[in-house]
Amino acid sequence: METKVKLEHVSKIFGAKPKSVIPMIKQGMSKEEILKKTNHTVGVYDASLDIKKGEVFVIMGLSGSGKSTLIRCFNLLNKPTDGSIYIDDENIASFNSSQLKKVRQEKIAMVFQHFGLFSHRTILANVEYGLEIKNVSKEERRKIAMDNIESVGLKGYEDKYPDELSGGMQQRVGLARALANDPDILLMDEPFSALDPLIRREMQLELLDIQERLQKTIIFITHDVNEAFKLGDRVAVMKDGRIVQVGTPEEIIEEPANDYISEFIKDIDRSKVFQAEHVMIKPNALVSMKDGLNVAVKEMEENGISSVFVVDRGRHLKGIVTIDDAIKGIKEKKSLEDVLRNDVTIVKKDEYVNDLIPKALESMFPLAVVNEEEKVVGFILRVHVLSGLVSDDINESEEYHG
Ligand SMILES: Nc1ncnc2c1ncn2[C@@H]1O[C@H](COP(=O)(O)OP(=O)(O)O)[C@@H](O)[C@H]1O
Ligand SMILES: [Mg+2]
């Protein structure tokens, strides 16, 4: 995948002589010691990141860990004390103010925690703001703004003022305003943290929806681990100004880099992170329609299983045959088709374990997992679903349906 944003050894120190502090950090002085000794605050130290085009990249950490300081480096609202920031292979840390203005107008938009709307402007005028600055004609910016207002579900509110709208709606305006500029990169600093839990969840889904349509590169900050893992393709965890781990939610849950992260993810609901493909077992045995009952029995015996999926040439599921039915069928000179059962529950490989639990509990047979092309790629037993919620080594389970 193409790199969109790249940070190399970015540090941001606050204080009178920020550069003088870097060697002290290198020597191993802590953020606290540096503050005491020099009255400088280490905002961010030595952050290197490689963010891919189209990715939702989440930065997570406790309050004060440096998340806002870092995200403000991406558009140089914070000028880094040290390091390089590449956007599309250009080091914007070395840009002059007019180059920078261009990048900010054309490539990056930001959404803030407290919405940052202009209270004296209507919703429409708020969303038009960035286009106005770019001297887009009145008709065109109206059209673009209205399209974006509609796409965040606020059609009909364009002539209202921000204080006439709820918090959730105001943040939709913030989002519409950012999107109206059609930026490649969307910076979002705890955009949903001020919202009620219900509205917050709604906004998270909406953001994923928008992302599916628009495929922006989104850098999203949160201190909420559930939000981070729900939204992030990858997540960077920050502590005391440093990035302490970068990985997919699954990677971080499976192998937290240190105790700080373990503590962070203690309360994570695994069932909302892990998907069918993470807990399924790849089938050792599949029987095809033309194989017949004898082959089916042999496959089940060799693999020590009591039922086996039957597929067509394209690995599409035709049904399942049990060992009892197969043996009885052979005695009665029936065909595979005669004893085939169709009551198999099929699930998609990206379904969340949370949603699989009731299906697994209800189903007599293993769940069949299919990919985008409806081909069978695995199966899931009740035990896999349940162990997926607690065990540390899912996917390595040797258990088999038998
Ligand atoms: N403008 C500033 N001047 C001095 N210190 C700052 C400034 N902005 C942030 N800091 C300090 O940098 C550290 C990181 O803050 P911040 O990036 O806001 O954390 P977060 O967003 O993770 O809560 C904190 O110790 C904070 O006090
Ligand atoms: Mg912050």
From TrEMBL:
Q: Where are the transmembrane segments?
A: none
Q: What class of enzyme is it?
A: translocase
Question: Could you confirm whether the keyword Transport appears in this record?
Answer: yes
Q: Which domain of life is it from?
A: Bacteria
Where would I find the ABC transporter domain in this sequence?
29-265
Which biological process annotations from GO are given for this protein?
amino acid transport; glycine betaine transport; response to osmotic stress
Q: Name one GO molecular function term.
A: ATP binding
User: Cellular component per GO?
Assistant: plasma membrane
Provide the protein's localization.
Cell inner membrane
Coiled-coil residues are none
Q: What is its main location?
A: membrane
What SUPFAM superfamilies would the database entry show?
CBS-domain pair, P-loop containing nucleoside triphosphate hydrolases
The chain positions of domain CBS read 280-336
Q: Which reaction does it catalyse?
A: a quaternary ammonium(out) + ATP + H2O = a quaternary ammonium(in) + ADP + phosphate + H(+)
Cite the EC number: 7.6.2.9
InterPro entries from the xrefs?
Answer: AAA+_ATPase (IPR003593), ABC_osmolyte_uptake_ATP-bind (IPR051921), ABC_transporter-like_ATP-bd (IPR003439), ABC_transporter-like_CS (IPR017871), CBS_dom (IPR000644), CBS_dom_sf (IPR046342), Gly-betaine_transp_ATP-bd (IPR005892), P-loop_NTPase (IPR027417)
Membrane protein topology class = Peripheral membrane protein
Question: Keywords assigned by UniProt?
Answer: Amino-acid transport, ATP-binding, CBS domain, Cell inner membrane, Cell membrane, Membrane, Nucleotide-binding, Transport
- Subunit comment for this entry? The complex is probably composed of two ATP-binding proteins, two transmembrane proteins and a solute-binding protein.
PANTHER family membership: GLYCINE BETAINE/PROLINE BETAINE TRANSPORT SYSTEM ATP-BINDING PROTEIN PROV, GLYCINE BETAINE_PROLINE BETAINE TRANSPORT SYSTEM ATP-BINDING PROTEIN PROV
Q: Which family does it belong to?
A: Belongs to the ABC transporter superfamily.
Name the chain's protein. Answer: Quaternary amine transport ATP-binding protein
